[in-house]
Amino acid sequence: MNNSILITGSNGFIGRNLSNYLSDKYNVVSLNRTKLNLLDKQSVDNLFDTQKFDIVIHTATYDAAPEFSTNDPNKVLENNLVMFDNLAQHSDKYNAMLYFGSGAEKRRESQYGLSKYYMDQAAQNSKNIFNLRLYSVYGIGTDWRYRFINNACAKVANNMPITIPKINKCDYLNVKDLCKIVDFYINNFKIISKSNDICSGDFIQPDEIVSVIKQVVHTSHIEIKYHNTVSSSVSRAKSSDKEYNGDPTFVKSLPIDITPLYDGVKELIDFYSNKQINLKEFVY
User: Fold this and answer.
1) For the chain, which domains are there?
2) CA-to-CA distance for 102 and 95, rounded, in angstroms?
3) What is the mean pLDDT of residues 100-123?
4) Omega of the bond prior to 66 within 30 degrees of 0, cis?
5) What is the per-residue pLDDT for 235?
């Protein structure tokens, strides 16, 4: 088994999925915040002094959204940059670091977006740091309480009405496809540009997602409600006219088949039909 890979943020949605997917192919070390405090420079230094990694995949992030997060919104910029920099300072000890930017970096209207913008600037000026810029990633493991596709599928699986929050049209990528894209990076980063939009081209609005759900469950009789007071912390809030999409050209050039939304929705409905969840925890 070749390639030793460090994955930070292994408790998170993307970190968990990547750890599970890549562990079958590589020697993966997955660390969460209790095992590695990325805000503590000495802890990060000690890690790289004692272990060698070919690839670092940085999924950990400090974000104060959604609204029930216990993170301090005034520390988002500082903490994201400190974690990133503590890893980037060791760039001579690994072949490449892959981290996940965000479409928010193009707007820079929040500390989160600004932190991702500064990371992208650092990546552009580095020798071996790569920005995989994400928009909206869905799939098994993300937070069904407020992430729209998972939220809607979980409700249908539990015979509940779908509530459509006030969110913009958005590009949705299945997490399984993201795992395949990361695997491609691991083996081909030398010929890939420093910054790419990682998106599917499935740029759709909530009503279109509901239409797909109806096709999956073979009914048009699903009760729909509209929630017009969702806070800005809920995924892709429609706080402006700006839509949340990237350029799918890079992803479509890869030898990877993108999961059709129909298939992704069906998998989620089947999953939530067999999983017990606390229905009182839905945010909307």
Assistant:
1) 1-134 (3.40.50.720), 140-172+200-246+259-284 (3.90.25.10)
2) 23
3) 93
4) yes
5) 47
